[in-house]
């Protein structure tokens, strides 16, 4: 057994074993950072995160400081280790929904929708109209909940604790509705390939309409609390600047891009689920800073309220799952509020009347359905920007590959551009204005 070292990389070595070549890589980044030429200036290199309360989870920032001015910012990710993309390769297509919903855990229904739309595109099927409308309905409720968390956590980090308590108060209203509809407050696995896990329960429509009556006043309260507040303005205006050119160069999408003035929203430019038939605007700002991103998200909450009302108005009776029995699961199940449980009629049928139905049910649940070989890319507009699913099938009952273009991962590239040259206190506001979710970054 021999050991060799790569001359180009003194930190990487390899050795031959019976299993093949094994590589050993040791860190050198910190030595390189500290070993740089300081040009005679006093410089401090500090870690911010991954345990820092203002880094939105387990994000780590390596900051070069001269006094309180940030001269260089590097982003280090990889502390959550969820491994969701790889896990989907070892589950059937329906079970994959329970994994992808945990990526961006503040907007789980968007992950479910994009994944299922990709599977449906491979299958060449169209989901029923009622299922499409309910998907829009629950996603827009989820968009409001996600923006409220972005507002609440950003307010907490800047010292506006009332923004935090109020933001989570309104988010509870959204989660109450999603729990009533799906059975769970987060990580719902409600959107399934071919449709939905279950129809809207009795009383849900009335409760959503009550929410629509209350929420506009609450949004107005946020503007009275924050928008005219001098301290809030000074902490956000001209902070985290990134113009359209910078956004396009870095692939940044979502409210960050729209705050720079470009009305790029996939619901408008590449519509899906019938969004082209809804009446709504794409809010923009021309400030290209944290202030503009705050205003865009607040305006998007109002637009989502309009979309929810329209979705309720166009709900028509009908199925919420495709009729193809080789795909539809759990089309024949009647799910309780906990998201589990079979209808007694279906249990009676498969257990006492039809051996063929029992065999089919068993294979569909344990093995799953086959998806024709091929690959697709399906993007949708999540609360943070373009969320795209590249799904590859080899014709089996499991995905061959699921790769996600998560907007938080891409948008975090903008951290250095937003932070360098500014104060260390403004790094907090810049990160908050990106609104990253590390579950989607380190997936």
Automatic annotation (TrEMBL):
Residues 158-443 form the NADH-quinone oxidoreductase subunit D domain. Keywords: Cell membrane, Membrane, NAD, Quinone, Translocase, Transport. It is found in: Cell membrane. Pfam families: Complex1_49kDa. It is a peripheral membrane protein. It comes from the Bacteria. Gene3D superfamilies: Cytochrome-c3 Hydrogenase, chain B. It is an enzyme of class 7 (translocase). InterPro entries: NADH_Q_OxRdtase_suD, NADH_UbQ_OxRdtase_49kDa_CS, NDH1_su_D/H, NiFe-Hase_large. Its main location: membrane. NDH-1 shuttles electrons from NADH, via FMN and iron-sulfur (Fe-S) centers, to quinones in the respiratory chain. The immediate electron acceptor for the enzyme in this species is believed to be a menaquinone. Couples the redox reaction to proton translocation (for every two electrons transferred, four hydrogen ions are translocated across the cytoplasmic membrane), and thus conserves the redox energy in a proton gradient. NDH-1 is composed of 14 different subunits. Subunits NuoB, C, D, E, F, and G constitute the peripheral sector of the complex. Belongs to the complex I 49 kDa subunit family. This is NADH-quinone oxidoreductase subunit D. The gene is nuoD.
């Amino acid at each position: 057994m021999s050991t060799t070292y790569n001359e180009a990389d003194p930190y990487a070595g390899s050795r031959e074993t019976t299993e093949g070549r094994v590589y050993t890589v040791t860190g050198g980044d910190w030595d390189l950072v500290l070993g740089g030429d300081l040009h005679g200036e006093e410089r401090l290199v500090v870690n911010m995160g991954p345990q820092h309360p203002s880094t939105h989870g387990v994000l780590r920032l390596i900051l070069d400081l001269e006094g309180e001015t940030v001269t260089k910012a590097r982003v280090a990710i990889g502390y959550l280790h969820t491994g969701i993309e790889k896990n989907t390769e070892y589950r059937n297509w329906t079970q994959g929904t329970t994994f992808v919903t945990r990526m961006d855990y503040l907007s789980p229904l968007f992950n479910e929708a994009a994944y299922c739309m990709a599977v449906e595109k491979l299958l060449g099927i169209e989901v029923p109209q009622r299922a499409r409308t309910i998907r829009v309905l629950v996603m827009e409720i989820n968009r409001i909940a996600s923006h409220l968390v972005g507002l609440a956590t950003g307010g907490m980090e800047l010292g506006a604790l009332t923004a935090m308590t109020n933001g989570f108060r309104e988010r509870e209203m959204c989660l109450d509705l999603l729990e009533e509809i799906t059975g769970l407050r987060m990580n719902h696995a409600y959107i399934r390939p071919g449709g939905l896990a279950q129809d809207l329960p009795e009383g849900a429509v009335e409760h959503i309409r009550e929410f629509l009556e209350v929420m506009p006043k609450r949004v107005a309260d946020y503007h009275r609390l924050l928008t005219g507040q001098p301290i809030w303005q000074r902490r956000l205006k001209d902070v985290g600047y990134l113009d359209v050119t910078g956004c396009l160069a870095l692939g940044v999408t979502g409210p960050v891009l729209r705050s720079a003035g470009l009305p790029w929203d996939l619901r408008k430019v590449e519509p899906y689920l019938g969004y082209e038939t809804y009446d709504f605007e794409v809010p923009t700002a021309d400030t290209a800073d944290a202030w503009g991103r705050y205003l865009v998200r607040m305006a998007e909450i109002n637009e989502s309220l309009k979309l929810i009302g329209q979705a309720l108005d166009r709900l028509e009776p009908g199925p919420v799952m495709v009729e193809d029995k080789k795909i539809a699961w759990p089309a024949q199940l009647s799910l309780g509020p906990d998201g589990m449980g079979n209808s007694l009629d279906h249990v009676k049928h498969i257990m006492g009347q039809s051996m063929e139905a029992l065999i089919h049910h068993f294979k569909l649940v344990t093995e799953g359905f086959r998806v024709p070989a091929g690959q697709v890319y399906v993007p949708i507009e999540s609360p943070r920007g373009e969320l795209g699913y590249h799904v590859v099938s080899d014709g089996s009952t499991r995905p061959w590959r699921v790769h996600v273009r998560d907007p938080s991962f891409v948008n975090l590239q903008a951290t250095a551009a937003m932070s360098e040259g500014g104060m260390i206190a403004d790094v907090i506001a810049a990160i908050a204005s990106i609104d990253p979710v590390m579950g989607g970054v380190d997936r």
